[in-house]
Every structure is written in structure tokens, then in C-alpha cells.
Amino acid sequence: MFRFLKQIPFTVPSQGTPPSGRRHDGRWDENNVGGGSEPASPTGKRPSVEIPGAYALGSIDPTLYRIADEDDIYEVPRDHIGRVWFAVEYERETEKLLVTLIKARNLPSRSCGSDNGCDPFVRIYLIPDERRYLQSKFRKKTCNPKFEESFVFQVSLRSVEDRVLKLTVFDVDRHKRHNVLGHALYPLRDHDCQSNERVVVWRDLEKEVAETATNKGELSVSTSYNNHLERITIGIFEAKDFKQFDGANSLDYYIKVCLMVQNKVIKTKKSEIVRKTTCPTFNESFNFKLPVNSLDTASVTLTAMQHLTGHKDKVVGRITLGSFMFARGKELEHWNEMIANQKEQITHWHVLT
């Protein structure tokens, strides 16, 4: 069983500053990250949302993530709502994703013309699971907060490229309401997870973000669940308009079907390769053992792959079916319909994302 480890405040020592976080004049020093009495969250409590295999780290070496001050000065685009810097590192040996939240700049202020009318904090999600998150401490009266906090997600190498890191920045107003300022996405398929390399990136915040489906194709999928046998059956039938990568002469495709419970891969199976068509017909089904008490924490990801002889196969797109913890929209509806009509085969077309 995974445990949620308590977040340990990170203290940046500064000469002449008392350990309590107070300055000699008795006021709080906002730049003292580890101030002893500063609340860890806007409510003064630790986040109660627990993510299996995910936790906050304690002390880090800030020199590893320090961004030059000149990065704070940049041409501010029109309708700009802020920029966030963070570092990402994937450790293959331990299958841990390390995310370091560094800083944010030019967040909107509640007071016009003021740069201290914002009390920000950040929640970090690992999509498709948007119900659970890890949360930073909040910073008081600043539109340019420094965080220097690290968080760890346990995620397997086989599934890490299917995940998207999402950072959502909040402002806590004087009525203790949490107002969303913006979001930033970092698809982990864009990260070199094989190299164990630490990468520092920045993203401009956006009001709305989504993983969009753009001309990657569609797939007809069926699901059925037998509660007596504790077995889920996934059927893949025909496909439409699978994407062909530029420069790839191959039109050979197959489907990977992966059953996960929470963040753990239980079983992965592959279909036969269908050749020389972007509209392949598979007509295959796959059975997985799935206990009734795991239905709410399970998901099934179907990944369409283009097979390239002599080269690494490429991901065309994917579909994730599951509970509200993992899926949205039509994929969530499909899962709920399967549970409500056990032993029946529920079939729908889904767009690859």
C-alpha cells in the first residue's frame, strides 16, 4: 500500500534571519520559504487528497533549479496571465517522476497597479487523473512567487508517455475562496524519459487547456464486465483514418491494450498487426481479471501504434476508458454504461487523442 508522506517545508538559510522566520523588526519575511509558522495551504491544513505513489519531497538543492534573474524580464504577450517555471526528471530505475516547482511571474493582481495583490499556490496533477493532486505551499502578497518545492509521482515507464503533467495556479482571495488563475500542460511524451535528464521548462498560463484530438483517427471499442467471474472483456473492431507519420512508408497498425489499477500497470496485451491500410479491421477481444472492488480505481488505455520495420514504432493516439478518476466525456460514459449493464457488450466509437 502506498503511503502519502507529509510535505516537509524547504528552508533557504539566510544570514542574520532568525530560525522562526521572523525578521529582527518582528514582521514576517516573505522571502523566507521555510518560515516556521507559515501555513502549508490556504486553509492552514495539509491537502487531504492522497495519490498512491505520490508525495512531496523534503530538502532540495535550489542551485540545481535556479533560473537566471534575466528570465524574469520578457516580452509580455497580450492578455498574459502569468508564466510558471518547473523542472521535470524521470528516474528509470525507480520509475519515479520528479517535478520541481520553481517560480511564477506576472500573475494577475486583485489590486490594479499593484504587484502584491495575489496569494498564489499551485496544484500539480498527472492527467488523466484530475481528481487527485499534490499541492504547493501558498505565498502571500506576491504576483511573482518563488516556490522551490519538489514532488514525486510513481509512474511506470510503460505508461509515463501516456501521461500529461498539469499545473494549475490558484489565488486565495480575502474570503478564502480559491480562484483559478490559469493552467499549464506538459505532455510527458515530449520528455526524454530514457535519459534520466533533468529539464527546466517554462509555460505561459492559459485560461483553458485540453488535450485535443486532431485528425488521429477513430476506433470502435466494446467493453463488458462479468461481476461473477470478475472479468473485463475489451473488444477492438474497426478503425477510421489512422494518422500516417510524415516520411513513413508503412501503413501497418496494431493496438496495445493496457489495464491499470490506480497508477500500477496490471497487464498489457497487443493485437495482431493489420497491414497496408489506414482503416484497419482488427476484430479481436482481450480478457483481463479485474476484482469488483477495483472498478472505481481501474482504467483501460487503448493505444494505436504504427509499426515501422527497422525503426521504433510510433504512437498514433490513445483512448482511456475508466472511472471519473481517469476518464472524461464519452470515455467515462462508456465505462459507467458497462458497469450499469453487466455481462452486456457495450460498443462505441471513440476519437483518438
Largest sheet: 5 strands, antiparallel
Helix content: under 10%
How many domain regions? 2
CATH architecture of the largest domain: Sandwich
CATH topology tier name of the largest domain: Immunoglobulin-like
Total beta-strand segments: 17
Number of helices: 2
Spell out the helices and strands N to C.
EEEEEEHEEEEEEEEEEHE
Mean pLDDT: 80
Note poorly predicted spans: 1-39
Cα radius of gyration in angstroms: 23 Å
Largest sheet, spatial ordering of strands: 1-6-3-2-9
Strand content: 35-45%
- Overall 3D geometry? globular
Structural class given helices, strands, pairing?
mainly beta
Oligomer category: single chain
State the CATH superfamily name of the largest domain. C2 domain
Task: Kindly report how far apart the N and C termini lie.
Answer: 32 Å
GO molecular function: calcium ion binding; calcium-dependent phospholipid binding; clathrin binding; phosphatidylserine binding; SNARE binding
Pfam family, one: C2
Keywords: Repeat
Organism: Lottia gigantea
Written overview of the protein:
The protein is mainly beta. The chain folds into 2 domains: 54-204, C2 domain (Immunoglobulin-like); 218-351, C2 domain (Immunoglobulin-like). 5% of the residues lie in helices and 40% in strands. The protein has helices spanning 157-160, 329-340; strands at 54-56, 83-91, 96-105, 120-127, 129-135, 146-154, 164-172, 178-187, 199-204, 218-226, 231-240, 252-261, 264-270, 281-289, 298-307, 314-322, 346-351. The strands form 4 sheets. The chain has a 5-stranded antiparallel beta sheet with strand order 1-6-3-2-9, with no helix packed on it. The chain has a 4-stranded antiparallel beta sheet with strand order 5-4-7-8, with no helix packed on it. A 4-stranded antiparallel beta sheet has the order 14-11-10-17, with helices on one face. The longest helix is centred in the C-terminal third of the chain and has 12 residues, at 329-340. Mean pLDDT is 80; it is low at 1-39.
